[in-house]
Amino acid sequence: MHASITAAYLARYRSAAAESPVELLPLTGAQRRFLITRRLAPRSRSDLAPLFFAYPGGTLDLDRLGRAAAAVAAGHPALCGAFVTVRGTPVLRTGGPSVEVAPIAVTPGGSAEGALREALLDWPLDGPALRLLVAREPDDGEELLALALDHAACDEQSIGALVGELTEAYRQDEPPASALGACPDQRAVATFREAVELQLAAEEAAAGPAARAHWGRRLGALTGAGGGAAKAAGVLTERLPAVEGGARSALFPALLDAVGAAARRLHRADGPLALGYPWGGRPPGAPAVLGCFLNTLVHAVPPQPATDLEALCDDWWDDLDHAGTPFDEVVRAARAAGSPWSGGLDAMLTFEDLRRRPPLVLGGVPGREVHVAGRPLAAPLAVSASHGDDLTVRLAWDSERFPAADAEAAFGDLLAVLRRHL
């Protein structure tokens, strides 16, 4: 009989929670993977989700920003307490606000981007869930704000909600006595628990025999070229026209094929490569709490590019029918089907619809979002695509593994495939 990974986790969690002197909350499959990964590779901070916003000099009041961050945190268990491992079991241990607001000094000859990047790399293993760090550009005095979250505390939906709440809390700037109650709010704790329990029930239900058979067929030949977290050398960027109308339904499969072309160029592997991408959200009826409710789906990159985008779309839709199967169960299914794949990703694709996220308005000024290169990667090759007024595609790579010339050639392959499909 197949014992699900989710059921085994719940048994361990209940045992740990029953013996704990403080309240422990359960975690989703994605949150558990973040905690396990960071303890296996404590120097890799690819489990952070940072956004960067530029403001004119003198816009930001750090004391006011700190009050706003504390007020927002009080309503979210993911920002109150710590993501920890108790008796080998990943949990959220409730406590006080898990936020930090701080100025970051820029060294002579340095830049605000470089200072913030180094500060984020120095994030403690059990550091706060939310950090708001501000550095000033030496030349023009522009202020650069890093809004960085432990990925266990957020997904795309969570980031949009947090940005909106932080904007409002900064605008209102209520005194701490009226803005804050106990952290976390006990009603919010109950809501968080409900959302996670619904997610875990959905994960267990999605790990049945049909789902295991599907992923065994799809990934049984997967070998992988040796993926995993990596350092980044830089970022290559291209802006393409926004995709509108009926073509939008084929955008993501086109991106899968395009990233696959880049992965083939860099890895030069004979067998299928593992391309991961986050997908999903909260189950129907689940409360909209802060946290990571995504799953990592895996696309087996074939040795040759797709000649029929429609067929690739069909395969992708078949995968989405089983999108709730937890990643660990997918790896187990692939290995049961004969794959030696360890679960390391050779490439990662993330996609963000910028039209779903409000601007971060502080002091009446909307922040100008900027991108900071050089951050750690969840895979040796990472491609991010953001869709708003245009389609912006960025490729980052492991400089210790791939020469810059190869990365540039791979980016050329990616763009050629993408333009052909779109």
TrEMBL record:
InterPro entries for the chain: CAT-like_dom_sf
SUPFAM superfamilies hit by this protein: CoA-dependent acyltransferases
Signal peptide feature range: none
Record-given protein name: Non-ribosomal peptide synthetase
